[in-house]
Amino acid sequence: MTATMTDAPPPAAPKAGNAPKGSTRSFGQILLIVAGALLLLAAVRMITGSNSLDSAGQVSAALGLAVPIGLAGLAGLWSERAGVVNIGLEGMMILGTFGAGWIGWQTSPWLGLLCGIGFGVLGGLVHAVATVTFGVDHIVSGVAVNLLALGATQYLAKLFFAGGKAADAGGNPKQSPPVDSLPDVTLPGLSDGLASIEKHHWFLVSDIAGILGGLITNLSVVTILAVLLFIGSWWLLWRTPFGLRLRSCGENPTAAESLGVNVYKYKYAAVAVSGGLAGLGGAFLALVTSHTYLEGQTGGRGYIGLAAMIFGNWRPGGLAMGAGLFGYSDALQLRNGGVTVHALLLLLVVLLALLGGWKMYKKAHWQGGIALMTAALVLVWYLFTDEVPSDFVGATPYVVTLLVLSLSAQRLRMPKADGMRYRKGQGK
User: Fold this and answer.
1) First and final CA of the chain: distance in angstroms?
2) Quick count: other Cβ atoms within 10 Å of Cβ 164?
3) Are 125 and 269 in contact (CB under 8 A)?
4) Where is pLDDT greater, at 42 or 239?
5) What is the DSSP string of 268-310?
6) pTM for this structure?
7) H helical segments located in 138-240
8) What is the number of other CB atoms lying within 10 angstroms of the CB of residue 187?
């Protein structure tokens, strides 16, 4: 995509009988993949003795770090499925953090949550007006939204938090006063039982107990809401007439218009929802992660959410896995440091070896050879060291993201009209 947007001819409609086959995996295949991943993780834990790899604390921390990334990715999915590239997710998250912190400390965290969503919707509408109504390049508009959101929140923070009651309550030009906590959910009996099983460090049994324990202990209500939003988005976009019309706007808006779809309305709706979801991700950071608005607290999660969306091939399930992977690797380096990340190298060796073998089987000898050679180098690194240097530990999430994106790049398929300028009646 170039910096100057051009009107591209509408993509040709596929001929009957030539539609590409779906790549959706069956439920049985998904279960086999999950079972294989659990066995591999349990084996690596037993070999390395690193019990933190799948402990309840690790899983809980990974979930908390994955939620804002997942919400940002889901926001990008809604927008891009309607044909609008949304680079402005970072700015919409920033608006969400400010809105949640500003209203949250003065009233209640629930109103702060709603205000964070509302501020995100406002950012989404600005992006929609620029791209849908005026035909501005989507990348240029998204960057402008990011810059405007950053500048506006910095100014408003100095205006509202630097003096008066806000300053007396602990605010300053870079942060809001503390906000009350949102409620957490824990299943007391089941959570304690799983924790007891986890302490025995049994092969696979304790691993499953640790993972399940992390998923049901001190679970924020916003996390539960995020899970429901993922399920609801999948159902709405892939199982309803509304979703079919919205996705048609991202695939072939001219054909959708010829069938009576109001393309402008659906694009506006998608980008507004996208902004609200990004704002909710920002509100999560302000209300759940830190209980206050902090300048710069999004930390690029809007961009990482876009990477997770691309890894997930513009689908909610794959997006959730990508966000979970980044959250897991980030929690690993934050909680346990170089020793546990060193254990992760052995897991990487096995995955690269499996990938290399699969590529060789598919006659992709060059790619398979590179994967096997990389696996050998990482194995040597693992065998001759005891821990990963601290400088590299901090980069673990980003290295994992780049590696996953590079390995999944060959199977990606973005919406055909994603990022293209649309004008009503252009197909006539």
Assistant:
1) 25
2) 10
3) no
4) 239
5) HHHHHHHHHHHHHHHHHIIIIISSS-BTTTTTTHHHHHHHHHH
6) 0.88
7) 138-161, 164-168, 188-198, 205-216, 221-239
8) 15
